[in-house]
Amino acid sequence: MVWVGPEAEAPSGGQKLDVGGGILMPGLIDCHSHLVFAGSRLGDFLKRMGGESYEALLSGGGGIHTTVAATKSASDAELLALTQGRLARLAKSGVMTVEVKSGYGLEPEAEARLLTIAGEAARAPGMPKVVRTFLGAHALPPGRDRKDYVAEVVGAQLAACKGLAERIDVYCDRGAFTVEEAEQILRAGQKAGLGATLHAEQVAWTGAAELAGRLNIQSADHLERVDEAGIAALAKGGVVAVLLPGAMLQLRDSSPPVMQLRAAGVPMAVATDFNPGSSPVLDVWLVASLAVLTMGLTPEEALKGITRVGAQALGLKDRGRIEVGAVADLAVFEPPSGEKADPRTLLMYMGGHTARIRIQGGRVLADSYQAAIEPSL
Amino acid sequence: MVWVGPEAEAPSGGQKLDVGGGILMPGLIDCHSHLVFAGSRLGDFLKRMGGESYEALLSGGGGIHTTVAATKSASDAELLALTQGRLARLAKSGVMTVEVKSGYGLEPEAEARLLTIAGEAARAPGMPKVVRTFLGAHALPPGRDRKDYVAEVVGAQLAACKGLAERIDVYCDRGAFTVEEAEQILRAGQKAGLGATLHAEQVAWTGAAELAGRLNIQSADHLERVDEAGIAALAKGGVVAVLLPGAMLQLRDSSPPVMQLRAAGVPMAVATDFNPGSSPVLDVWLVASLAVLTMGLTPEEALKGITRVGAQALGLKDRGRIEVGAVADLAVFEPPSGEKADPRTLLMYMGGHTARIRIQGGRVLADSYQAAIEPSL
After folding, report:
1. pLDDT tens, B216-256?
2. Nearest-CA distance from B98 to chain A in Å?
C-alpha cells in the first residue's frame, strides 16, 4: 500500500473502485491449517459423536493415521485438486494468506510431496498465498521407535523439507510428542533457518507453552490447558497464542483461558485449524464468531485475530493491516441484510460470508465486481 | 412424488437428471424463524458479549422492542426486499419450506403487514414455501397494560391475522407472557382454526411444556429448562420439541435435555430461530451441526430434525421426506472435498453448504444445473 487516507487527500491519478457501502477488510489470514490430505474421517466423527475421545482414536491407529494412509494412496493430481478446492473456498471468504502444514506424510519424501503440492496449488490465479510449515512430528507412525522417528524428523525429513517450508511445527501433547522431543525438533528447525510454532497444551497440560516462550517461537496453538506459568512464558517470549475454536467445538472441549492471556498481554490470533479429524471447518469467519461466543474474545480481538495478529503469528508484518507499506490485500464484504457496514456484524451473523470484491497485491481479482471500477480519477 | 425406487424398476418416460455423485436430500425444512424485520441489533450483540443478559436487554426496552421500532420505520418495499434476501439465502442452502413468524408489529395492522409481506416475498420464483405464524404475543409493548394487551392479541390482532397465518405462537417465559396468558392466546388461536406452537422453557422454567402437551399443540420450541413432567406432557400430547442451537450458542446457554427427550420418545426438530437478537444465523446446516456438537443429537436425528421432523412440527406430512405421495421437493449437495456422498459429511463440515440442484414440486429450478438434465429416458 502506498497511500491510505480520506478521499479528499487522495493523490491524483490511479484507479477508483466504489465499494458501495461494503465492509472493507484487510485480506484475511488463516494462520493454522492442515489443507493437504485425501480421504474421509467420517468414521472418526461418528465415533467421537458417540463419545469416543480423539486421543483414543489416535492411539488406536485411527485419527491422523487414517488420513496418512488415504493421502499416501492418492495421486499427486488428486491431492492437488483437493487442495485447490479448499484454497478456493478460503479465497471466496476473503482469506489471502493461509498457513498450510504437512504432517500426513510422516516420511521424508511424503512430507516434501505435501509441501510441494501446497505450493503448486497456490500458484493458480486468485489463490491465497501459502506459508508452508513442516510438521513431520504430527504423530508417531505405528510400530516406529520414538527415538528413531525423532531422529528421522530432524534428519532426513528436515533435509527434504527445509527448502520447501518457511516454518516447523510439532504436535506436542499426551499421545503425541513430548516436550523434550519438541525442543529437539524445534531447535533443529530453527538452526535450519525455519520459523517455529507448536501445538501446545491441547489434550493435556505438558509444559509446552513454557518451551514455546523459552525458544521465542512465533506461535503456540490450541492452549486449552495452558497454566499461569505457561502464559507468563508466552508473554515473556513474545509468542502469539493461536486459538482454534473449531477444534474446541468439535472435540467438545473447554475454552483456553482468554482472560488470563489478555491480562498477560499475549497477542491472540484465531484460525480454522482446518483438518478432517478435529476441525472440519473451512470458514475463518465462522471460527472468529466462535472465538467470541465460546471463548469470550471481544469482537475487536476476533477481527484482529484473523488479520494482523494472524499475520504476526506467521512472522509477517506486511499484511493483515491497511496501512502504508503493507501489501495491498483487501476484501470487501456485504453487510448482512439490514445491517450497517460494520465488520462486527459479520461476526454476529455466524459464518458463510463471501467477499464481494477481492484485491490481491493491489490488483482487483477477475472474479470480483469489475463493473464497480472506474477507469481513472 | 409418484414413484421412488431403484433405477432398474423406474417407469418409462419422464426426465432423467444425473446428480453426479451428489447427496440427495428432501428439500430442507426450517420450522422456526423470525424473517420479517428491519434494523440492526449490533448494539445488543456487543452488550451481550460484554456479559449483559438477553432478558435484561428486553426488560430495559431494548431487545425485541428495538426491532419493533426499526420495522415500523421501514417501508413495505424495504421489508419485502430484506425478507426476499433472507429467503433467497435459505433457498440456496436447500431450504424449501420455512416457517415465518410475525411478532415485530405488536399492533393489529402492523402484525398483519408482516404476515402479508412474508407471503409476498415467497411468491418470487424459486423461493421456499412459507408457513406463517401469528406472534402478537412476542413481547409486551412498553407502557401497555398486560391484560389489555392480551385482550388485543386475542381480539383485534387475531382478527386481523387469522386469514394470513396458518399458526399462532406465544413467547411464554419469564419477562414475556405467563402460562395462563399463553393458554388464553393459544386456545383463541386454535378456536380460530390455527395450528399452535409455543416458545417454552428457555430463559426460565415456567411450566409451558406441560401446557403444550395439554393443548396438543404442534411444537414446543427452545426447551433448555424443560423438566421431567414437561417432557412427559410433550410425549403424551404428541408435541414436537423444536431445538434451536443458534440461540443456545448466542445466549451461551446450556443444552435442552436431549437424552431425556429421546428416552421419552419426543420427536426432535432443529431450526435456525433466525432473528436479529438471539439467533442471527441463516444456515440450517450450521444449526444442524451445532445440534450434534453442542446438544448431543445423533447425526441421523439432526438430519431428520431439518427434514421430516421439521415438517411434522409444522403439521405437514407431505414434505421433508422422499416417498410416494410427498411433494417432490429435492436438493442435491456436493460432498465436502474428498468426502463420500453421505449426508452426515455435511454435518461434520460445519455450515455453508449450497444446493447444486434444487427441485421444487417436481420442477428443476432455473438456477440449478440445467446441463445435467437429459431430455427423456
Report:
1. 999 999 999 999 999 999 999 999 999 999 999 999 999 99
2. 18
Residue count of chain A: 377
pLDDT over 70, % of chain A: 97
- Tell me which chain A residues have a C-beta less than 8 angstroms from the C-beta of B252: 293-294
Pairing state between β A240-243 and A219-222: parallel
In whole angstroms, give the CA distance from residue B226 to residue B238. 16
Phi then psi dihedrals of residue B248, to 5 deg: -55, -45
Q: Which residue has the cell 424443560?
A: B226
> Looking at the DSSP assignment, which residues form a beta bridge with residue B275?
B279
User: CB count, 10 Å around CB of B62?
Assistant: 18
Interface test mutation site (partner B, options A23, A40, A48, A248, max chain B beta carbons within 10 A): A40
Which of A281, A294, A337 is closest, CB to CB, to B86? A337
**Residue contact B42–A280, C-beta within 8 A:** no
DSSP three-state, residue B177 = strand
A17-38: per-residue pLDDT in tens?
A: 888 889 999 999 999 999 999 9
Cell 428432501 belongs to: B26
Q: Are A219 and A248 contacting, i.e. CB atoms less than 8 angstroms apart?
A: no
Q: Residue B132: CB partners within 8 Å, gap ≥ 6? A: B99, B100, B101, B102, B115, B118, B119, B164, B165, B166, B167
Cell of A228: 499461569
**Scanning every residue of chain A, which has its alpha carbon at the shortest distance from the alpha carbon of B35?**
A337
Please report the ipTM that was assigned to this predicted complex.
0.95
Q: CA-CA distance, B345 to B273, in Å (whole number)?
A: 23
Q: Which positions in chain A touch B344 (Cβ < 8 Å)?
A: 42, 45-46
Q: What is the 3-state secondary structure (H, E, C) of A302-360?
A: HHHHCCHHHHHHCCCCCCCCCCCCCCCCEEEECCCCCCCCCHHHHHHCCCCCCEEEEEE
Bridge partner list, B357: B332
User: Please, are residues A130 and A370 in contact by the beta-carbon 8 Å criterion?
Assistant: no
Orientation of helix B76-92 relative to helix B108-121, angle to 10°: 40
Spacing of C-alpha A94 from chain mean position: 14
Chain A residues closer than 8 Å to B49 by CB: 292-293, 298-299
Identity of residue A165: A
Return d(Cα B252, Cα B377) in angstroms, integer: 53
Chain A residues whose CB is inside 8 A of the B276 CB are 338
Pairing relation of β-strands A330-333 and A355-360? antiparallel
d(CA B90, CA A339): 18
